[in-house]
Amino acid sequence: MERHLFPTEKQLRNAWTTCSETNKPGVEVLPLDDHRLQVHKVSPLTSHHLVLPPSGIGSAAPKAVWEAFYPKGSINPKNSIPGGFGFYLSGPPGFQACLRTANEVLFSYSVMFDKEWDFVKGGKLPGIFGGEGDSAYGCTGGRKDERYRCFSLRLMWRLVVVITSRKDKEFTYVMNRQGGSGEVYTYMPEFEKNTEVLLAAPPKSYGNYQYGFSVGRGAFKFPRGRWITVAERVKLNDPGEENGELELFVDGKTVISVEGLIYRVNTASKVQGVHFETFFGGHTEDWASPKDQRAWFSNVSGAILG
Question: Superkingdom of this entry's organism (predicted)?
């Protein structure tokens, strides 16, 4: 499990995990607890109850999990039918203090969708966030102001889109029997260099200049009824340089890797933790969950690499 949660040969300067099976030297084992993980800015209309894990197979074997509930018709935590959940976490206090001087950070977690999960058009999953002070928060939802002061690297699941008639511009959304198509959904400072390198990420990347960029769509799949572990590594650029990095691991293997990024323009901008958010959408009804559904999250972990 350690190699999935910490899939790097680099030294872990400060590391923690909520995976009780971990015995990696130097890694602090913590309970999946809001207070210990510095959970804050919790969406008031949803819950992330701590429950016993459902049965499942795969790389993760958590002892306790956060459950996300997506009722029929739900789109996001602020919709008239709220679904999923949303909050920010920074890790234990000592780790949070180290983030203030860290230039390279890794966060990971395990996720499982229920066995009859319907991916619809897509939805959001947790990912790293950061920026300058409070400007780091809310780097989503089509935000335009002060984008150079924040970055957000949530994940997304998507459904494959098949064009059935180019002439009539008709589209068919087909269920991928192997799972949902995965990507990193980025909000980055709006520099030409970022656009260039993000859109070059294979197998496919898309730029939405009103909302976020879809990076590496289809590089991996989200299965149903099975635990997988995702780990996200960010190396901040030196101010004035184009040398930032983004790497995503799935079950210990690199699936997306981007170099030459600009996360910040000054050293006041830092990785601040994980935007631990999940929901269906999009923001329109055609993204909504067609039925009551559940997903589970556990083995939340973090490490300072540099």
Answer: Eukaryota
- CATH code of the domain containing 256: 2.60.120.200
Q: Counting beta carbons within 10 angstroms of the beta carbon of residue 27, is it exposed (0 to 12), middle (13 to 18) or buried (19 or more)?
A: buried
For residue 53, give its domain range: 2-304
Query: For the chain, how many structural domains are there in total?
Result: 1
* Stretch 69-78: mean pLDDT: 91
- Mind listing the pLDDT tens digit for each residue in 21-44? 888 889 999 999 999 999 999 999
The pTM score is 0.93
Q: How confident is the model over 201-212, as pLDDT tens digits?
A: 999 999 987 788
